[in-house]
Amino acid sequence: MARLIFLFLVFLVLIANVTTISICNGYSVHAVCIKSEKEALLKFKQCIVDRTNRLASWHSDGDCCKWTGIVCDNVTGHVIELNLRVPTLDDYYDYEAYERSWMGGKISPSLLHLKHLSYLDLSNNDFRGIHIPKFFGSLGSLRYLNLSLSNFGGKIPHHLGNLSNLKYLDLGNNYYTMHVETLHWLSSFHSLEYLDLSYVNLSQASNWFHALNTLPSLVGLHLSR
Ligand SMILES: *[C@@H]1O[C@H](CO)[C@@H](O)[C@H](O)[C@H]1NC(C)=O
Ligand SMILES: *[C@@H]1O[C@H](CO)[C@@H](O)[C@H](O)[C@H]1NC(C)=O
Ligand SMILES: *[C@@H]1O[C@H](CO)[C@@H](O)[C@H](O)[C@H]1NC(C)=O
Ligand SMILES: *[C@@H]1O[C@H](CO)[C@@H](O)[C@H](O)[C@H]1NC(C)=O
């Protein structure tokens, strides 16, 4: 009898294990956000001017993988995407509401804690002429960077040339608020497929044709004015 009970218990343990395994492989698990990355995002939020409270879901007691504009890797939980693009005017009931939804302020270097960030889209906002931060050049996992229509100004930092994994770089449509002195830094973009520098003032960049000519993967280019 004792032996039977023992076998029964072994059976129960086995069942329990199988159930756990199936739960762990199924839909019920998802990676939750990593504490240091959440803190980095909260610091980033503190410096952003967000008049329509688009970042309302960004508060300290939630899972940052569920916040507006954030995508985490399903397995590791690292933040891989930060997308704060404002949709087009068609999605707003009037122009004023559209304009108010543009975010601005400063961009905190706390973003450097997002070591796996591969997609950053701050397009269609209004950063009122602040420079593109030099530290963007250290976001080494970036494959997609979109700062178009967001009113960045001044000289585009050559530090961006450090982003050798970039496939898409869109700095267009900032309507002559930005300029470059050289495009030499483009030469490290071996994977770059799409480049938009429309309305960037290239008049001081004498070597731009040569720099563009060295991009082996480029399939899309916009330099229009
Ligand atoms: C994460 O899981 C979702 C839903 O199961 C899936 O649609 C998505 O492609 C996955 N993303 C990654 C990066 O694996
Ligand atoms: C960048 O964002 C703008 C507007 O938000 C969009 O029109 C454009 O297609 C984006 N660029 C890329 C390369 O996806
Ligand atoms: C270039 O990238 C490396 C590694 O990601 C980093 O250590 C370095 O500070 C970056 N340099 C610039 C100028 O951003
Ligand atoms: C571009 O820059 C040059 C020299 O810095 C300046 O003279 C010119 O007015 C600028 N062009 C535009 C359209 O802003």
Oligomeric status: single chain
Summed over residues and divided by their number, the pLDDT gives a mean of 88
Small molecules held by this entry: 2-acetamido-2-deoxy-beta-D-glucopyranose
General shape: globular
* Rg value: 23 Å
Q: How many E strands?
A: 11
Family: Belongs to the RLP family.
Main location: membrane
Signal peptide: 1-20
InterPro entries: Leu-rich_rpt, LRR_dom_sf, LRR_N_plant-typ, RLP23-like
Report on this structure.
By secondary structure, the protein is α/β, with parallel strands linked by helices. Helix content is 22%, strand content 14%. It contains four helices and eleven strands, in the order ααβββαβββββββαβ. The protein has helices at residues 2-25, 35-47, 95-100, 208-213; strands at 48-49, 70-72, 79-83, 104-105, 119-121, 144-146, 154-155, 168-170, 178-179, 194-196, 220-222. The strands form three sheets. The protein has a seven-stranded mixed beta sheet, with no helix packed on it. A two-stranded antiparallel ribbon has the order 1-4. β2 (70-72) and β3 form a beta hairpin. It is globular and about 85 Å long. It starts with a helix and ends with a strand. The site of one 2-acetamido-2-deoxy-beta-D-glucopyranose has 5 residues, from loops.
